[in-house]
Amino acid sequence: MEETNREAEATAVQRVAGMLQRSDQLDKVEQYRRREARKKASVEARLKAAIQSQLDGVRTGLTQLHNALVDVKDIQGSLADVSQDWRQSINTIESLKDVKDAVVQHSQLASAVENLKNIFSVPEIVEETKHLIEQAELLKAHRKLMDLEFSRDDLMYEQYRMDSKNTSDMSLIRIYFEDVQSLSDELAKQLWMVLQRSMGTVRRDPTMLVSVVRIIEREEKIDRRMTDRNKQTGFIPPGRPKQWKENMFKVLESTVSTRIEGTQSETRESDKMWLVRLLELTRKYVLDDLLVVQNLMTQCFPPHYNTFHRFFCLYHRGVSARVQELASEDLEANEIVSLLTWVLNTYKSEDMMGHPDLRSECDVNHLEPLLPQDVVDELLSKYVQTFTSNITGWLRKALETDKKDWQKDTEPEADQDGYYQTTLPAIVFQMFEQNLQVAAQINEGFKEQVLKLCLKQMNTFLIRYKEEAVAYKEDHLRDRQLPQCYIQYMIAIINNCQTFKESINSLKRKYSQSSEPTASDANIEKTLNEVAKEGCQFLLDEVFLDLELHLNELLTRKWLLGSHAVDTICVTVEDYFNDFNKIKKPFNLEMSGEAHRRVVVEYIKAVMQKRITFRNAEERREGADRMRKEAEQFKFLFRKLTAGEDTDRLCDSIAAIAEVFKLTDPTLLYLEVSTLVSKYPDIREEHIVALLAVRGDATRDMRQTIIETLSQSKPAYMGIMQPIFKDITVPSMTMTSMTSMATAKLLK
Fold it and tell me: How big, in percent rounded to 5, are the helix, strand and coil portions of the chain?
């Protein structure tokens, strides 16, 4: 206590010291004192109130404890009185045992008397009940059966109460009523038969179905009553509980499964469309049955059965089981698509489970998938494998058929614009289109997958197509007379490339959601361009094989004296290009340009091969004039073939060379050659040497000076303009032979 007082005093001193730290605070001493006095009074008041509350609680508790003690003493006294009375009445209870036995016996006799009529007429009632069952009078038959079972069960129960260990009497009763159980089984068979035919029964005679449901409901009530009595007494009659309601649902489930399985009337051996027919019949039967359930059967069952939802789930489970069985079979590719299309699209559509008349009862979005996702993935994978194998075979057969057409003696068909074509692109893309239409029925993702697979197979196919086109050309070169329509079919092959491009773009626009190019796109584009360009090259090779003799006449002594080689070349090229007009754009324009380039290049090659060396200025003039004239012929020809496009630059190279030959003053050769080099920067040193050699009057020093000067000032070739001299080679002997020939000439 003293310790507490000291702590309180120390705290008070600290507080006062805190209040009076400055001199001006001394004026507020009275104010501080009053404030502290109010706080003290408030604390004391709260303390008194708390103590008073505690005292009141203690007082109330003591009062309740006192009352409880009094009650306990009263109860003890009452228990003592009861114990005394019980001891006094033991003898009285034992003396009533005879009365108890008499009551039990009276109850048994009363039960026997009550069932006496049924007991003596059991055989007659059994026969009457059998007759009622045969006549389908099920409610009356069940009433008779209930009477028999009540009589049997009451007798057995009384016997059980009197002596539960007396099995002989129980067996006697059971034997006497043994026909009752067989009647119950027979009636159950009739009930299950009606339920198995419930879809037809509810249309024809719904009262029969109602009677079956009423009988089952009665038996359910009896089962519940007997089960409750069994809990109280331990007695349960024979055959109970019957559980007919549970069996009813099993029968209905079995009936639904049987109806679904019974839709298959065809097999793959008898009908290739067996699965389509099976799925369509299943759709029709399930929808019809559910509409019958909704409109008729729900009225025959109690509301708490939730009949429609129960049948809806039964049919869903039945269809799911059936579909999984089908999925486990060895299905072909078209069958896999038919099954998946039906499962993923048709099943939940308005044509089946999502029918408008059913939508108000059940939400198809809450249904579990008919097939697990792993099964769907497995089927899709199997389809892709089969489709890949099939399409490879289809493409191979299509190409083989097309190759046979290439050997025909008749020209290929032409499209509406007159361009040659074969049926190959149409056949290929009809196959692709059909499979993409099928894939689109499954889902968008699978459609994209099949499209990519088609493009991948297309790329492989085009590589084979290219190889076959090369082989076709090589076979033709062995005997140029065969096949007779080689040129026309090679044109068709080129045109097919453009058709392939257009068809691929059409497929992508129609079946792909993505506009991004893929690796297959680039490869296909590249291969098609290669096939078309090689085809054009093959045709030009054919042209130049016919021109070979005439090209060999160019820049020869015969040519200088007067040759019709260029006239023949122009006529031949124009004649070929009458057929080449059947080539589609842009390949026809590219081919005209390439033909133009090759003609000019072959002409310049003839110059570079030094088939002639001009002997004097007159020959040089005549040769130059002839070259200029022939350059104009080529210009006229290729302007006509290229629809007026600029053809001057290529042909001007011939004219530019002619100017080098025509020059009469050798000292000006450097300027003329410089002009040629500036126009055609891809010209090389050996080309200039060859030109000077053909000219025939350039000395060795002059050639050396021109070459050295040009090598120092020659412009760099940037590769922008179409090259002419780049692909022209000068024979290796040209340089030495030209030097020796020029020296010999100078010595002369």
Answer: 80, 0, 20
